[in-house]
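ok posting inputs for the adenosine-5'-diphosphate job
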Amino acid sequence: MIRTFRAPGRVNLIGEHTDYNQGLVLPMALDLATFVESAPNNTASVFVHSEHYKESREWPVDAIPQLEPVGDWGDYVAGVARELVRAGYRIEPRRLFIRSTVPEGAGLSSSAALEISCALALSFDQSVPPLELAKIGQRAEVEFVGLPCGIMDQYVSVFGREGTALMIDCLNLERQYVALPSGVSILAVNSMVKHSLARSAYRDRTEECAEAARCLGVRSLRDVSLTAFEVAAPAMPEAARNRARHVIEENERVRRFAVSNDPVELGRLLVESHRSLQHLYEVSCEELDFLVDAALEIDGVHGARVTGGGFGGCTINLVREGCEAGFTEAIQSAYRRRFGISPAVYRCVAAAGAGEIAPV
Ligand code: ADP
Ligand code: MG
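and the output
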């Protein structure tokens, strides 16, 4: 029997580069998602086909515990399979067919959507506990694919809930559902670029934050208050000081965002977050800064910022209801004029977390 599993992409409203610093994040799961159809296979292997890449991969079930990365999209699936086996789950020969509506490399987490949908499809009758599912996806990305990411993307892909955002405390993995502000729409604008700096910078930032924590004598940047930081800041190396200030102040912005329903204040927090990522954390780029600056000139825009890791991908924009079409038209033509590229615009709708889709 063919079964279908779905896992959503996500957009992070605020709390950027805080997850791997044990901080706060506020993402929501999207109605853009990855779907995996799973059918029995008559050879003793897992066969997987990506509609997007029009490519297939196949691994004998027996070989899964020893799989090693080869550097392509199949690694995400192989990594999930290996982590499932290592966690004690059984994998049966299946044929997986992957299709997705999450744009790739745009900061809307097509990677977590792929990991979680495949983890569900490969473990289908074994009911992996949701938190373990998220951790298996994260381990696949960190230990197999080799990207040191936090838990946010996989966590919200699993625990997202229709119509609400989700505040995650990455220190203890507690979650709190947060109502979305009324009277506004959230629109993501895809810069359509992804600079190669993204991966190395992610690693550099991880190390710089660890160094900042060492300077401050704490385990992670979560353990230091703004007041204690201000006392120690003058003696810190500049890069460590700037990275730490971003993380500490960004956690505070998440707290304020979660309790506000005032679009003007929410918009201001988004812009503050962007400026901090631009100047202190230094993960923005010319295209993203342009999209934010141009958005702030458009009627009905309360605020905008980069979302996701940076160096490309998407901005999110808080736009007054009724102004969406005008915003889309204005931002697209401004970006086209400046960079000659037409940016895709997505209306972000908060959708449910991952699960099986009932057969029709
Ligand atoms: P993001 O998560 O922001 O979209 P990443 O670079 O983390 O960007 O993940 C993108 C990678 O995930 C792609 O390069 C590809 O390897 C894999 N991927 C995403 N969607 C698919 C898909 N539908 N089929 C195969 N691989 C995919
Ligand atoms: Mg990703």
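notes: The CA atoms of residues 214 and 220 lie 8 Å apart. The first strand starts at residue 3 and ends at 14.
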